[in-house]
Automatic annotation (TrEMBL):
The keyword Transmembrane applies. The lineage of its organism: Bacteria, Bacillati, Bacillota, Bacilli, Bacillales. InterPro entries: YdjM-like. Keywords: Membrane, Transmembrane, Transmembrane helix. This is Inner membrane protein. The chain crosses the membrane at residues 57-77, 84-101, 107-133, 213-234. It comes from the Bacteria. The keyword Membrane applies.
Length: 235
C-alpha cells in the first residue's frame, strides 16, 4: 500500500479510536500517530517516511560534501596508507545511489544516537540501535511483525506513561493499522517469524489500478469512521 494511504488510514483510525474511547486527542498523540502510520516502512529507504526525513536535496548535499572530504583526508590526514584507503572509501560512498546513501545516513544517525544520544535521553540508545538494525533488514521483514508493533508501543509507553495513555495507544494503533493494511496486498505480512504463517488477503497489488481502488475504499471507510467519532463535537 502506498505511503499516502498508510498515513491517512493509520492516523485517521488511531485518532478515531482515541475519540471513541474518551481519550484526549492531543498534539503529541497526533504526532506519534502520524509517525506510527509510516514507521513500519523505515526498512525501505525510498518509503514516504524515510524520503521525507532524508530528502533528495540532503542526499545531493551529502554527495557534494563527500568528494572534497575524500580529498582532504588524502592530503591532510597523515596516517599512510590508511588515509588513502579512507579517502577511496569516502569517494566510493559519494557515488552510491540515493537509496543506498539513505541507508548510510540512517546508520550514521543511529550510531550518533548510540554514542551521544543517551546524554539527552536514555532511550536514544535503544532508538539508535534499532535504527542501525533497520538498515540491514529486508522490506516487510522484522518491522512488519507483531514484535515491531510491541517494541514501538513499548517505547512509547515507557517514555510517556506519565502523560496519559493516549500517546502510546495512538502510536501503537497507527503502527498496527499499517500492518493490517499491508495484509490486504498479494504479498501480505508474516506477523510472527520465524513462523511461516502469513496474513494475506490478496485484494490488491501496490501501484496497480485495482490497488488504487482498494486503497481509496479504505480511505473512504477511514473518513466515515472519523466522521462518526468526531461529528458529535460539531453538532
Amino acid at each position: 500500500m502506498m505511503g499516502r494511504s498508510h498515513l491517512i488510514i493509520g492516523t485517521g483510525v488511531s485518532l478515531s479510536v482515541l475519540q471513541l474511547a474518551g481519550m484526549p486527542v492531543t498534539a503529541p498523540a497526533v504526532t506519534v500517530a502520524l509517525i506510527g502510520s509510516l514507521l513500519p516502512d523505515i526498512d525501505e529507504p525510498n518509503s514516504l517516511l524515510v524520503s521525507r526525513a532524508l530528502p533528495n536535496s540532503l542526499i545531493r548535499l551529502l554527495q557534494t560534501i563527500l568528494l572534497p572530504t575524500a580529498v582532504f583526508v588524502y592530503f591532510y590526514v597523515h596516517a599512510k596508507p590508511w588515509n588513502l584507503l579512507l579517502a577511496i572509501l569516502i569517494a566510493l560512498v559519494s557515488f552510491l545511489p540515493s537509496r543506498s546513501l539513505r541507508k548510510v545516513l540512517m546508520f550514521a544517525i543511529g550510531l550518533g544516537l548510540v554514542f551521544y544520544g543517551h546524554a539527552f535521553a536514555p532511550w536514544n540508545l535503544i532508538a539508535g540501535s534499532l535504527l542501525m538494525l533497520c538498515t540491514t533488514l529486508t522490506h516487510r521483514g522484522l518491522t512488519h511483525t507483531l514484535y515491531g508493533t510491541a517494541v514501538w508501543a513499548g517505547l512509547l509507553y515507557s517514555t510517556t506513561q506519565q502523560q496519559g495513555p493516549e500517546i502510546w495507544v495512538a502510536g501503537g494503533t497507527a503502527y498496527a493499522m499499517h500492518l493490517l493494511a499491508d495484509s490486504l496486498t498479494n504479498r501480505g505480512i508474516r506477523p510472527l517469524p520465524p513462523l511461516k504463517w502469513r496474513i494475506r488477503v490478496n485484494l490488491m497489488s501496490t501501484g496497480t489500478k485495482r490497488g488504487a481502488v482498494v486503497e481509496n475504499v479504505c480511505i473512504v471507510l477511514t473518513l466515515i469512521l472519523a466522521w462518526i467519532a468526531f461529528s458529535p463535537l460539531f453538532l
